[in-house]
């Protein structure tokens, strides 16, 4: 028998043994992943499915006689609510202004902390402090600081001559939402700072120095070299924060509870009122399902365009 003919069965046996080993490894990997999958299904998937199901049911603890399949009745009732358009508009304003302010302030602070200045490490450590402060503590602290009776912000503004008398920032229709946006930007911009600072570390200094030698000014280097290098990280953190901000409940509830006169009420606040004040879980589930659908649509669009761009 030729040596080649003897090698073939050995190779087949080795290949079969390798295949069996790979299968065992895959089964073991599935066993390790199984607890996490069950945890996800129990704490995330099941509640989401339950909310979706409840959105098509009459479920009001104040009127238990009304029950059963509702169809789209809950969705229609939510949309025709007199405060729905106001809450929707406030959610858009709250999200857009917060994310824009966080990004601009985060980018400016990241550029400043990327410069070779003395004490840079200390400043980088201090900048993270607002992000570490819990939302409830930050909201309550700023509420006290903005109080017209004893708030230090009004005291400073009056002493500087910027205000004639203390102003109720959180109690006026025109300033309540904008004030909460300001506080949210103050707390959240360090996340952008850290992320963008990490992106700036990857920008090649040789390219920047070469552009400077070629006569490119600071603005031109920023717009044509530095900012394009931050595009990926910028889009990622903006997309994440659009979702985080749109569904944020804590800050607004702690500082204004959606008031005065619903001027700072957003969709998450409206969901809370439906569920915890009116006990209308059908309407609350319908509005929550609408927001979930919007978030999923945004994620799909983001994924589609990002994949399409990479493919192109």
Structural class based on helices, strands and sheet pairing: mainly alpha
> Stretches where pLDDT falls below 50 for ≥5 residues?
none
N-to-C order of helices and strands: HEEHHHHHHHHHHHHH
- Strands side by side in the biggest sheet: 1-2
Protein described:
The protein has 312 residues and is mainly α. It contains 14 helices and 2 strands. Strands 1-2 form a two-stranded antiparallel ribbon. α3 packs parallel to α8. The longest helix has 52 residues. The protein starts with a helix and ends with a helix.
Task: Walk me through the topology.
Layout: H1 3-54, E1 57-59, E2 67-69, H2 73-79, H3 84-113, H4 120-126, H5 129-132, H6 135-146, H7 152-159, H8 176-201, H9 205-213, H10 218-229, H11 231-246, H12 250-255, H13 267-277, H14 281-311
Antiparallel strand pairs: 1-2
Descriptive keywords:
mainly alpha; 14 helices; 2 strands; 2% strand; flat
